[in-house]
Amino acid sequence: MPAAQAAETLGLGEAIRQALASHPELTLNRIDSDIAATETRRIEGQLDPVVTASIGATDDKSPVASSFQPSRTVSGQLNAGISKPLANGDTVGASLAYNRARQSFSNPVAAQFALVNPAYRGQIDLNYRHPLLRGNDRPDYGDALQAAEDDVKASRLQRRTIARTLALQITNAYYQFASDHIQLRLAEQAVARAERLLNYQAFRERFGLIETSDRLQARALLEARRLDQAQAEAQLETDRTALNRLLLAAPDRPIEPAMPGNVTEQAPTDFEQLVDTASRKRPEFTILDTGRPPLKRACSRPWTPNAASSTSSPSLARARSTADLAVPPARPSVLPTTMPSCRSNSAMPWATTAPARASARPS
């Protein structure tokens, strides 16, 4: 990742919106939904009304054998109709017809005998058709429409399924990426503690308080912590690439998760406050404290770590306290069934310290 390019802070909601807006599977599913909706509209079009209209005019001139026959006939026709199919197979329709004819005679006397000239004729028809066998209930329409509507619903449900699956994948990849950031910070802190321990052990070696093997153990611890840091960095880049691929972005795009503020600065440092917070928020302590006084009230005095080693030499106590900085205390997988007595000078069950050896060279 280039150092000059600033990393983009990406939130979970923004990552999901980017994936849903540009993912090809969702785009393809939207096209399938549009195709299914088009089929539905095509089938519904079978019940659209049908309107017909026609107009015509004729001019007929023919030789006649008698003066009383018309020598010329001019006529005009106008026809219009509308029919509406119904879903049950019936058909309703209406039609209109209008004709007009005018005759011309070569003999004016014969024209006087034509009482109605021009002649008009109009007709209106209403019809209702009900099929008895074939086409009854119109199965080609009802079944096809139901199948098309089911295709539209299936396409929409499939799109929602794809979107939900994609959102879950983005969520898992995002939180894994955020977890990698936390693991990298912890690895960097572990390296810093191991470096301080190595410097302290080297200082003690110069004064002859420890042997060379003790300093080499601190050196080995530092190298192990550096290896953990390198592995955390590699895992971070791997998960960053996976998240960018899900977002259809460049694999090497620099992004950072939207992490909350540094909560370690706001955490209480006093042991009594830590115990009080744990007793109020952890369900394990709530179960253990059922029917008992609160844990904070049960302790009459603060707990002193490593009280059992108070009779040891000061140098050994400093070595153990320094080793605690490099090796974090191990937490038990199962909490004890009984809480330790506040009057006991022993350490808490889950608070363990790394042993440190102290020796003096003969002068």
Q: What brief labels describe this structure?
A:
363 residues; alpha+beta; 4-stranded antiparallel β-sheet; two-stranded parallel sheet; disordered C terminus
Q: Count of helical segments?
A: 9
| Main beta sheet | 4 strands, antiparallel
Instruction: Note the run of SSEs as H and E.
Output: EHHEEEHEHHEHHHH
- Overall residue-averaged pLDDT value: 75
Draw up the topology in text:
Elements: E1 8-10, H1 12-22, H2 24-44, E2 50-61, E3 70-85, E4 91-105, H3 108-112, E5 119-129, H4 139-206, H5 212-246, E6 255-257, H6 271-281, H7 283-288, H8 295-298, H9 314-326
Parallel strand pairs: 1-6
Antiparallel strand pairs: 2-3, 3-4, 4-5
Helix pairs in contact: 1-4, 2-4, 4-5, 4-9
Describe this structure in words.
This protein has nine helices and six strands, in the order E-H-H-E-E-E-H-E-H-H-E-H-H-H-H. It is of the alpha+beta class. The strands form two sheets. It has a four-stranded antiparallel beta sheet. Helix 1 packs across helix 4 (139-206). The longest helix is centred in the middle third of the chain and has 68 residues, at 139-206. The protein is rod-shaped, with a radius of gyration of 47 Å. The protein starts with 7 loop residues before the first strand and ends in a 37-residue tail after the last helix. Mean pLDDT is 75; it is low at 294-363.
